[in-house]
Model the fold of this input.
Amino acid sequence: PTAKKSATHHYRDHNAHIIVATMVYQQKSRISGVSLGLLLGALMLGTADCLVIGATKTGQASAVQERRDFVQRTLMGSASILGSLFTAVDDANAAVLQSKPCALGEGDGCADIAEGNEFIKSLQEKSAAKKDVYVKEALDAYNMKNYPDFFQSIGKVMVKKSDGTFATFSEEEFSKLKAAGRIGLEYPRAMGGKVSDMTQKPILVLKD
Done:
């Protein structure tokens, strides 16, 4: 009875430790891999203590102690492995967050990405040479996907001018420009002009 009572108290104490550990973990939005591994290891060891003490009987102390030592060694090894895995993930995430930028073939991180590969370097140079084209395509796509329907709802027509900017005309003004042959169509392109962008409607263009 004494052993059973002791095991019961130990089990309750262990549950309290689990609750406290869980509360601490929930209060921290980020936790390192080592800390998480040690937390799991501690919880597993506490569980092993409960199992071993619950199985204790008179005259079996030595055998139980050996079993307890074996379980502890096994679980500590598992906790160490878990800690290493979480640490590796954290290191990988940190490396991604600390990467230098490389966009359109320009940036401090482009050399790291190329790693001396001449083919990749040539692609980066081509991207940098067409940077203005890519930026213009992206701007046109943004404007055409977001604004024509809005202006149409208030009785306006959005038209692209020869300098690349956009202007709006009333429906009456647009009709006059169209009748005068000053309205044309431009089909959006993407990837530096290599392909047609079928996600966009044709662009109304004002002719000079």
